[in-house]
Amino acid sequence: SAHEYGHILGLDDYYDYNQSIGPDGGIGGGDMMDNNVGDHNPYSKAILGWVEPTIVDSDLLDEDFDITLRPFASSGDCVAIFKDWNSSLYGEYFIIDFYHPSGLNALEAGSCGLFNDYGIRIYHIDSTLKQSISVYDSVWDLTKYNNSDTSHKLIRLIQADGLNEIEKDNLYGGNNDLFHTNSSF
Is residue 83 a contact partner of residue 103, using CB atoms and an 8 Å limit? Predict the structure, then answer.
């Protein structure tokens, strides 16, 4: 399956293995590495080198600028917003894309946390590398955090409705978790 092939490429699971440790709910279900549906999210594709996010760091946040995001599934357009850009996608930042239920997202849109509406997805990423890495560590052991059994998530969907139901109630994401015109974060 595409999920298992994601592991061969080095992607981790984004679902929760142990509900007694850290926040629950993975990233809401609607992702190939969370619930085996839809496409890979922009973080996964960026780490694999399949897309190149537009980088925005704190130096640009005081300036006015426009960024156009076409549907991620067909364009790969995404933006990574860093407080302190260290020339690496291994760190803490937000990654944003324009989700559209097309391409790999079309078949199961509306089920298992996969959106059937279009809108802006915002993910909080903390892919900070471990302080020391052993030659015996696997590709899944490079970052301090994961979504499966750490007290802090590697990748978290920022929910536009602010209800935090994915983590609090272990629920699937829904269309109300997408940002739309006049939404704010």
Answer: no
Q: Give me the pLDDT at residue 150, please.
A: 85
- pLDDT tens digits, one per residue of 88-141: 999 999 999 999 999 999 999 998 899 999 999 999 999 999 887 776 666 667
Pairing of strands 54-56, 78-82: parallel
Q: How far, in Å, are 53, 56, 58, 59, 85 from residue 63 at the CA level?
A: 19, 11, 10, 8, 16
Bridge partners for 92 per DSSP: 126
For residue 80, give the DSSP letter: E
In sign, the C-alpha dihedral spanning 54, 99, 61, 131 is: negative
Amino acid at 145: Y
Q: Measure Cα distances from 44 to 73, 118, 174 in Å.
A: 13, 20, 20
pTM, to two decimals: 0.92
How far apart CA 164 and CA 106 sit, in angstroms, is 25
